[in-house]
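Model the whole thing, not chain by chain.
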Amino acid sequence: MNKNQLIFREATIEDLDRIVYLLSDDVLGNKREQYKQPLPESYIKAFQSINSDPNNELIVACYGEEIVGVQQITFTSFITYQGGWRATIEGVRTASLVRGKGIGSMLIQWAIQRAKDRGCHMVQLTTDKKRPEALHFYEKLGFKASHEGLKLHF
Amino acid sequence: MNKNQLIFREATIEDLDRIVYLLSDDVLGNKREQYKQPLPESYIKAFQSINSDPNNELIVACYGEEIVGVQQITFTSFITYQGGWRATIEGVRTASLVRGKGIGSMLIQWAIQRAKDRGCHMVQLTTDKKRPEALHFYEKLGFKASHEGLKLHF
């Protein structure tokens, strides 16, 4: 695999099936997602919401015709930090067959550059404490685990 | 102070000066914010972005004419969790004169109800590890510190 041939682009509706497959092919994702045919309508609605929102981008990493990675980047204007914009990264996954080849790093570095191009002052994400290896991965990329990430599920 | 008289509403541009004051009157906020007259243009631009975005709400708690609390709630459509919507809470502050009177709890409970009304499946936030008392505050409200909150500042 030649990583120079990876292409990063916004996802289209035709990519959605593969994206949901990638999200579900994961130790935590397989409990949360529902990958089946036809895809549950909720995924299609979410894709449409993201696609029509200029501050929300679903990005795929492609190797030839194959989607080998995905991430979602959301840009938000906050009042804090003197009215600064932040990018939030969510749902980062790489295909199990190509894990450990640096595609995850390239996805995050792509997101960091995109955030800079959009004038953000910060990139942020949360990572489940059940994934200690992910924490190390993000720290190597320059992130600081300065915050607790709190969730309240309904 | 009779908490039953608190009113929660979306902020207007006339409230912005007081909001920036509240954000800056804080042990971490006083390093990040710039409260001066006239207010830096970046705050006004951020207010306009938030105000024109149906998925971004700046909420104030009012006691009579006085703004005694503020928070920002952002609603985001993600592909993860079967295309679920989440609410993210940011920039929660109460006026120093009324701290410890339960206004912070009422702000968060208001946000939780708002998130339910909007069809979210989760409310999330990050809290700086330099605020251990805040972690306890959110845990009492039902949040779980299941994630690490990672930030990369440019």
